[in-house]
Amino acid sequence: MGKRSLENNSEESGVFNLVAQYYDLLYKDKDYEREVSFLNDIISDFDPTTKSILDLGCGTGIHDWLLARRGYKVEGIDMSEQMLQVARDRGAHYPNVAYRPTFRQGTLENFHTEERFDLVVSLFDVVSYLRDFDGLRAFARNVKASLKSGGLLVFDCWYGPAVHCQRPGTRIKRLENDVIKLVRISEGHFDPNRNRIDVEYEIFLTRKLEGTIHTFRESHALRCYFEDELDEILGQCGFKRIFAQQWFDRSAPSVQSWSVLFGYQAC
Questions:
Q1: Which residue(s) pair with 201 in the sheet?
Q2: Does 5 map to a domain?
Q3: For a disulfide at 204, which of 88, 101, 150, 183, Cβ 3.0-4.6 Å?
Q4: Contacts of 172 (CB under 8 A, 6+ apart)
Q5: Whether 75 and 128 share a structural domain
Q6: pLDDT tens track for 114-130
Q7: What is the pTM of this model?
Q8: Whole domain around residue 126: which residue ranges?
């Protein structure tokens, strides 16, 4: 799990506000550099003149600063103001970036942009937080309005065939740095009739200096999608699919591909 923080849900916003300061520790093993390099390859193949990128569900902004370092002009939108503040503060580590990313609050279903972008991305399975077709349709319409003619939408989401085959279960993640120690227990519950997944997290956080332990819970409500569902809804909103592939090797999706990367062009 990761950047999932952009659905119109005030309770979920509070969850991400609470964990914003520990977010990067939770996902320290995520290879953002490799993902941005792969995304840059997709851009080079599709339209090497791409300059402007909108990132929906930007989280703490790591993708955005890495893209900006490559010369792209990036705007990030996220539901959590605390996440956005971490993203803004991250700029101190990138003093030589010419086009510094801008960050603002918004949701997948209700965001609006003044300018049109060459590329819209929504990574780390954020789209799976859209639990029904109405939400997906609203997202697609907003993206279409934000893209230049012929622009590209790239997103990943939980892939229906893989979720049905593998099924969510219980996992334990243990992490620590110089300041905190964190244990996260996740328990997934899958409704195969509605393709919905509810993931309950219990997090135990120890502050090393104080020796205090904090416990809190998160609830994540997601949906897995099938290719024909995405094609139909996005097609209704003026998109055509140009690829569905696995990260990094561009191979076709399979029942082992929990997260699949999709590309849709605005017609």
A1: 186, 218
A2: no
A3: 183
A4: 183, 184, 185, 186
A5: yes
A6: 999 999 999 999 999 99
A7: 0.90
A8: 10-160+225-266
